Structure prediction request, 171 residues.
Amino acid sequence: MRDPIEKAALEVLRRAGPDGWTMDAVAAAAGCSKGLVHYHHGTREDLLRRVAERLAEERAAGLRGALRGEGAAALDRLWTHLCDEVATGDCRARLWLASAAPELGSASAPTAKHQDDFAAAVGAALAIPPPPADVVRFLLAAFDGLQLAMLTGVPRSRLRDSYHRCWLNAI
Prediction:
């Protein structure tokens, strides 16, 4: 029951946002009692930490997957993926978790392995050596900033130009 509860918790966060995220809503979405949610995940914070970790894992896999292929096509797929994260609510959920509390922020942050895997995917897609850690951190932070701008209503056409400038600066 742990995994279905985590999936339901993430779905409630995507759909209802932080204001609509309650243990009762998670239990209803998982089709179980609130007591069972607490039994498997302890406190609200424990479950939110697990949701943050799941989002970080999903994001890392999504970024790597979007970069499969070569050159500009891979970068275009990555842009589409970033836009999709905004549309699905993943971005809003991840950014809220990152800002909600220090322990949730660290749980939602990309791990060293995520960063290394992303660097390898960038290198393979662009036929260059994997970028160093500081460049990877710059790119991931820039993606967060671009997605935050999307959430605030900045036209994607303007942001896409910024996305391309980030890549030019990074490589």
Summary: Residues 44-66 form the longest helix (23 residues).
